[in-house]
């Protein structure tokens, strides 16, 4: 009886061990299945990560190229701004020099014109004083004399202007000075 009980106990232990082994095999199979799923998921995620890394690398290269292009454009623009600034400064200096020269020329012309105007007025006054001291004649002959006198006065003014004109620093034309003489009427002279 003791041997049968031991055999029965051993069979019970073998059955329990078999059951335990079956449970362990199922647990192992589940673990292997989970591991397989995880490996497949990890591979899919790894592939996805690789694709995203490639996209990011391409995007980074594009951004880097745009940055380099922007830097080149900025440097080119800075050089253009410097060139334009220098050109503008040169033009401003040139304009200021031309303006200064024009002002000086104007001052010289103004001074010369005023001086010659004074000389002309003085000469005309002197001549007017001389011609007013001459005796006036009466009658028809006097009237003809008066017409000739005003014509002579105009010719005399033209001659005076011709004397003064060549010395002019203003470089005024003689014809324009002669036109000025028409402003002086015989009554003024």
Please tell me about this protein's structure.
The chain is an all-alpha fold and 189 residues long. Helix content is 87%, strand content 0%. The chain contains 3 helices and no strands.
Total helical elements: 3
Could you spell the SSE succession in H and E letters? HHH
Q: What fraction of the residues are assigned to beta strands by DSSP?
A: under 5%
Number of strands: 0
| Rg calculated over all Cα atoms | 60 Å
What's the story with the biggest beta sheet?
Answer: none
Helical content class? over 70%
For the record, give the distance between the C-alpha atoms at the N and C termini, rounded to a whole number: 178 Å
**Which regions contain 5 or more consecutive residues with pLDDT less than 50?**
139-143, 166-189
Name the average pLDDT.
78
Supply the helix-strand structural class.
mainly alpha
Q: What oligomeric state do the depicted chains represent? A: single chain
Shape: rod-shaped
Lay out the secondary structure.
Blueprint (H helix, E strand, L loop, with lengths): L1 H131 L6 H26 L9 H8 L8
